[in-house]
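quick one before i forget lol
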Amino acid sequence: MTTTEDLKCLILVLEDIEEIRDGLSKLLKVDGYRVELARTLEDAILKAICQPPDLILVCLAGSTTSIIQVAIQIRQGAELKKDIPIVFFDVEEVEEGAEVALEDNLYLTKPDNFNQLRALLRKLLISKSLTP
C-alpha cells in the first residue's frame, strides 16, 4: 500500500499569518511531508518555480473568487501542470466539515479538525502518485 510517507511529497503552504503558517508546517512535517512556506503570492510563485510542489495548500482569507484567482496565478506564474492539486483551507463560504471539488484540481475545504484536512491531502497525493 502506498502511503504519503513513501512518497516524500512536497506541499507548498501559502499563508500570510506566521503562526498559522508555522503550525501547519509542523503538523504536515509530522505526517512525513516536505513543506515549503510562502507568505505572499509572489513568494509562492518563486518557490513553485524553483521546486515544483506535489500539492499547494492556500490558507488565505478572502472571497472564493479571489482565492481561485490566486490559484490560477500560481499555476500560470510557475507554469505548473494542471494535475497538481490546490487545496483552499478554511474558506468561510464553505460549510464546516465540507469539501467541494472545483475544476482543474482545485478543492475548497473547511474541515472540522486537522484530521479531515489530513485525509483529503493524503487522498489527493496518493491518487496523484498512482496515475501515470
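fyi The longest helix spans residues 114-129.
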